[in-house]
Amino acid sequence: MKLYFRQSGESGSPIIILHGIFGSSDNWLTIGKILGEENRVFMVDQRNHGQSPRSDEFNYDVMAADLHEFILEHKLENPIIVGHSMGGKAVMQFAMSYPDAFSKMVVVDIAPKYYPVHHSMILQGLASVDLKNLKSRTEANEILSRFEENEGVRQFLLKNLWRNPVKNNEFDWRINLPVITQNIDVVGHELQNEQTVEKPALFIRGSESHYIQPEDERKIWELFPNYELETIEGAGHWVQADKPKEFIEILTRFVKS
Questions:
Q1: What is the pTM of this model?
Q2: Which InterPro entries does this one have (predicted)?
Q3: To the nearest 5 percent, what fractions of the chain are helix, strand and coil?
Q4: Active-site residue list
Q5: Architecture label for domain 5-115+190-256
Protein backbone atom coordinates (compact mmCIF):
# COMPACT_ATOMS: atom_id res chain seq x y z
CA MET A 1 0.00 0.00 0.00
CA LYS A 2 1.40 3.39 -1.04
CA LEU A 3 1.15 5.56 2.06
CA TYR A 4 0.81 9.34 2.00
CA PHE A 5 3.61 11.15 3.85
CA ARG A 6 5.07 14.56 4.59
CA GLN A 7 8.82 15.11 4.70
CA SER A 8 10.96 17.51 6.71
CA GLY A 9 14.71 17.78 6.15
CA GLU A 10 16.88 16.53 3.29
CA SER A 11 19.91 14.98 5.02
CA GLY A 12 20.92 13.09 8.15
CA SER A 13 19.38 10.00 9.73
CA PRO A 14 16.06 8.86 8.25
CA ILE A 15 13.31 8.96 10.89
CA ILE A 16 9.81 7.60 10.22
CA ILE A 17 6.96 8.69 12.50
CA LEU A 18 3.64 6.82 12.84
CA HIS A 19 0.63 8.52 14.48
CA GLY A 20 -1.98 6.91 16.73
CA ILE A 21 -5.64 6.02 16.20
CA PHE A 22 -7.73 8.90 14.71
CA GLY A 23 -4.47 10.77 14.01
CA SER A 24 -2.43 11.68 10.93
CA SER A 25 0.96 12.99 9.82
CA ASP A 26 -0.49 16.46 10.42
CA ASN A 27 -0.24 15.90 14.21
CA TRP A 28 3.56 15.66 13.95
CA LEU A 29 4.38 18.66 11.74
CA THR A 30 5.82 20.85 14.51
CA ILE A 31 8.04 18.12 15.95
CA GLY A 32 8.94 16.87 12.45
CA LYS A 33 10.09 20.36 11.46
CA ILE A 34 12.43 20.61 14.47
CA LEU A 35 13.80 17.09 13.97
CA GLY A 36 14.17 17.85 10.25
CA GLU A 37 16.85 20.45 10.98
CA GLU A 38 19.37 17.61 11.36
CA ASN A 39 17.52 14.55 10.02
CA ARG A 40 15.28 13.37 7.18
CA VAL A 41 11.89 12.97 8.81
CA PHE A 42 9.01 11.12 7.16
CA MET A 43 5.63 11.64 8.84
CA VAL A 44 3.31 8.96 7.50
CA ASP A 45 -0.47 8.60 7.33
CA GLN A 46 -1.25 4.98 8.19
CA ARG A 47 -3.88 3.07 6.19
CA ASN A 48 -7.47 4.23 6.80
CA HIS A 49 -6.15 7.54 8.15
CA GLY A 50 -5.40 10.94 6.65
CA GLN A 51 -4.68 10.89 2.93
CA SER A 52 -3.48 7.28 2.74
CA PRO A 53 -5.57 4.63 0.95
CA ARG A 54 -8.50 2.90 2.63
CA SER A 55 -8.75 -0.83 3.12
CA ASP A 56 -11.02 -3.36 4.81
CA GLU A 57 -7.90 -4.97 6.27
CA PHE A 58 -6.85 -3.21 9.45
CA ASN A 59 -4.51 -4.91 11.93
CA TYR A 60 -0.91 -4.66 13.12
CA ASP A 61 0.42 -7.22 10.64
CA VAL A 62 -0.73 -5.16 7.64
CA MET A 63 0.40 -1.90 9.26
CA ALA A 64 3.88 -3.42 9.77
CA ALA A 65 3.89 -4.61 6.14
CA ASP A 66 2.87 -1.11 4.99
CA LEU A 67 5.82 0.36 6.88
CA HIS A 68 8.23 -2.17 5.38
CA GLU A 69 6.94 -1.36 1.89
CA PHE A 70 7.42 2.36 2.61
CA ILE A 71 11.06 1.80 3.64
CA LEU A 72 11.79 -0.22 0.50
CA GLU A 73 9.98 2.25 -1.77
CA HIS A 74 11.99 5.21 -0.45
CA LYS A 75 15.25 3.21 -0.22
CA LEU A 76 15.74 4.16 3.44
CA GLU A 77 18.74 2.52 5.09
CA ASN A 78 18.61 1.76 8.81
CA PRO A 79 15.81 4.21 9.61
CA ILE A 80 14.78 5.09 13.15
CA ILE A 81 11.12 4.19 13.63
CA VAL A 82 8.91 6.26 15.98
CA GLY A 83 5.29 5.46 16.83
CA HIS A 84 2.71 6.89 19.24
CA SER A 85 -0.02 4.69 20.78
CA MET A 86 -1.44 2.59 17.91
CA GLY A 87 1.60 3.71 15.90
CA GLY A 88 3.82 2.45 18.72
CA LYS A 89 2.23 -0.97 18.52
CA ALA A 90 2.69 -0.93 14.74
CA VAL A 91 6.39 -0.13 15.35
CA MET A 92 6.74 -3.03 17.81
CA GLN A 93 5.02 -5.43 15.38
CA PHE A 94 7.27 -4.18 12.58
CA ALA A 95 10.39 -4.69 14.72
CA MET A 96 9.43 -8.32 15.35
CA SER A 97 8.49 -9.01 11.72
CA TYR A 98 11.40 -7.16 10.09
CA PRO A 99 14.20 -7.07 12.71
CA ASP A 100 16.92 -6.15 10.17
CA ALA A 101 15.04 -3.32 8.46
CA PHE A 102 15.73 -0.54 10.99
CA SER A 103 18.39 0.75 13.40
CA LYS A 104 16.46 1.97 16.48
CA MET A 105 12.87 2.22 17.61
CA VAL A 106 10.90 4.65 19.76
CA VAL A 107 7.55 3.72 21.28
CA VAL A 108 5.47 6.55 22.76
CA ASP A 109 3.08 5.77 25.61
CA ILE A 110 2.00 2.23 24.79
CA ALA A 111 3.06 -1.22 26.03
CA PRO A 112 3.20 -4.57 24.21
CA LYS A 113 0.01 -5.87 25.82
CA TYR A 114 -3.75 -6.21 25.37
CA TYR A 115 -5.85 -3.09 26.02
CA PRO A 116 -9.64 -3.30 26.36
CA VAL A 117 -11.71 -1.18 23.95
CA HIS A 118 -12.00 2.36 25.34
CA HIS A 119 -12.84 4.47 22.29
CA SER A 120 -16.53 3.49 22.07
CA MET A 121 -17.88 6.90 23.07
CA ILE A 122 -15.61 8.70 20.59
CA LEU A 123 -16.76 6.37 17.79
CA GLN A 124 -20.40 6.96 18.75
CA GLY A 125 -19.76 10.70 18.70
CA LEU A 126 -18.11 10.65 15.28
CA ALA A 127 -20.89 8.46 13.88
CA SER A 128 -23.56 10.83 15.23
CA VAL A 129 -22.27 13.77 13.14
CA ASP A 130 -24.61 14.03 10.16
CA LEU A 131 -22.02 14.95 7.54
CA LYS A 132 -24.55 15.51 4.76
CA ASN A 133 -26.36 18.26 6.67
CA LEU A 134 -23.45 19.58 8.75
CA LYS A 135 -23.08 23.37 8.48
CA SER A 136 -19.82 24.03 10.33
CA ARG A 137 -16.97 22.66 12.43
CA THR A 138 -18.50 24.48 15.43
CA GLU A 139 -21.66 22.44 15.01
CA ALA A 140 -19.60 19.23 14.80
CA ASN A 141 -17.76 20.22 17.98
CA GLU A 142 -21.09 20.76 19.79
CA ILE A 143 -22.28 17.29 18.77
CA LEU A 144 -19.02 15.67 19.85
CA SER A 145 -19.16 17.44 23.23
CA ARG A 146 -22.02 15.13 24.22
CA PHE A 147 -19.64 12.18 23.88
CA GLU A 148 -16.22 13.65 24.75
CA GLU A 149 -15.90 16.42 27.36
CA ASN A 150 -12.21 17.22 26.71
CA GLU A 151 -11.98 20.14 24.27
CA GLY A 152 -8.39 19.21 23.29
CA VAL A 153 -9.43 15.68 22.32
CA ARG A 154 -12.39 17.05 20.32
CA GLN A 155 -10.13 19.47 18.41
CA PHE A 156 -7.73 16.59 17.71
CA LEU A 157 -10.63 14.51 16.31
CA LEU A 158 -11.96 17.44 14.28
CA LYS A 159 -8.65 17.70 12.40
CA ASN A 160 -10.10 14.77 10.43
CA LEU A 161 -13.03 16.87 9.20
CA TRP A 162 -12.68 18.33 5.70
CA ARG A 163 -14.75 19.38 2.70
CA ASN A 164 -14.54 16.64 0.08
CA PRO A 165 -14.56 18.03 -3.49
CA VAL A 166 -15.62 14.60 -4.79
CA LYS A 167 -18.79 14.87 -2.68
CA ASN A 168 -19.81 18.40 -3.78
CA ASN A 169 -17.68 19.93 -1.04
CA GLU A 170 -19.75 18.24 1.67
CA PHE A 171 -18.02 17.60 4.98
CA ASP A 172 -16.30 14.21 5.19
CA TRP A 173 -13.97 12.34 7.54
CA ARG A 174 -10.35 11.72 6.60
CA ILE A 175 -10.53 8.44 8.54
CA ASN A 176 -12.23 5.26 7.38
CA LEU A 177 -14.80 5.38 10.16
CA PRO A 178 -16.74 2.17 9.28
CA VAL A 179 -13.58 -0.01 9.11
CA ILE A 180 -12.01 1.52 12.24
CA THR A 181 -15.30 1.03 14.13
CA GLN A 182 -15.55 -2.56 12.97
CA ASN A 183 -11.93 -3.31 13.97
CA ILE A 184 -11.55 -1.13 17.07
CA ASP A 185 -10.92 -4.22 19.24
CA VAL A 186 -7.96 -5.07 16.96
CA VAL A 187 -6.27 -1.81 17.98
CA GLY A 188 -6.09 -3.11 21.55
CA HIS A 189 -4.88 -6.60 20.60
CA GLU A 190 -1.63 -8.20 21.69
CA LEU A 191 1.13 -8.35 19.10
CA GLN A 192 1.41 -11.38 16.81
CA ASN A 193 4.32 -13.88 16.65
CA GLU A 194 6.12 -12.27 19.57
CA GLN A 195 9.89 -12.57 19.56
CA THR A 196 12.85 -10.84 21.14
CA VAL A 197 14.29 -7.85 19.30
CA GLU A 198 17.84 -6.82 20.22
CA LYS A 199 17.91 -3.37 18.59
CA PRO A 200 17.95 -0.27 20.83
CA ALA A 201 14.42 0.65 21.94
CA LEU A 202 13.28 3.81 23.72
CA PHE A 203 9.91 3.87 25.47
CA ILE A 204 8.58 7.31 26.43
CA ARG A 205 5.57 7.68 28.72
CA GLY A 206 3.67 10.53 30.31
CA SER A 207 3.55 10.60 34.11
CA GLU A 208 -0.20 11.34 33.99
CA SER A 209 -0.97 8.52 31.55
CA HIS A 210 -2.04 5.01 32.57
CA TYR A 211 -0.93 3.26 29.35
CA ILE A 212 2.46 1.98 30.59
CA GLN A 213 2.27 0.62 34.14
CA PRO A 214 5.25 -0.47 36.28
CA GLU A 215 4.22 -4.12 35.86
CA ASP A 216 4.49 -3.75 32.06
CA GLU A 217 8.25 -3.31 32.24
CA ARG A 218 8.92 -7.04 32.56
CA LYS A 219 7.14 -7.73 29.26
CA ILE A 220 8.95 -4.83 27.58
CA TRP A 221 12.27 -6.20 28.82
CA GLU A 222 11.47 -9.73 27.61
CA LEU A 223 10.73 -8.52 24.08
CA PHE A 224 13.09 -5.54 23.86
CA PRO A 225 16.00 -6.28 26.25
CA ASN A 226 18.03 -3.33 24.94
CA TYR A 227 15.41 -0.81 26.06
CA GLU A 228 15.27 2.36 28.13
CA LEU A 229 12.19 3.97 29.60
CA GLU A 230 11.79 7.72 30.03
CA THR A 231 8.91 9.34 31.92
CA ILE A 232 7.99 12.93 31.10
CA GLU A 233 6.49 14.67 34.12
CA GLY A 234 3.17 16.41 33.67
CA ALA A 235 2.43 14.76 30.32
CA GLY A 236 -0.62 12.63 29.56
CA HIS A 237 -1.09 10.09 26.77
CA TRP A 238 -0.33 12.68 24.04
CA VAL A 239 3.15 13.16 25.47
CA GLN A 240 4.55 14.92 22.40
CA ALA A 241 1.71 17.49 22.40
CA ASP A 242 1.68 18.04 26.18
CA LYS A 243 5.44 18.50 26.63
CA PRO A 244 7.00 19.01 23.17
CA LYS A 245 10.27 20.56 24.42
CA GLU A 246 11.04 17.71 26.82
CA PHE A 247 9.89 15.15 24.26
CA ILE A 248 12.20 16.51 21.54
CA GLU A 249 15.16 16.63 23.95
CA ILE A 250 14.76 12.96 24.88
CA LEU A 251 14.12 11.86 21.30
CA THR A 252 17.09 13.85 19.91
CA ARG A 253 19.43 12.40 22.54
CA PHE A 254 18.37 8.87 21.57
CA VAL A 255 18.70 9.57 17.82
CA LYS A 256 22.26 10.85 18.32
CA SER A 257 23.36 8.14 20.77
A1: 0.97
A2: AB_hydrolase_1, AB_hydrolase_fold
A3: 40, 15, 40
A4: 85, 237
A5: 3-Layer(aba) Sandwich (3.40)
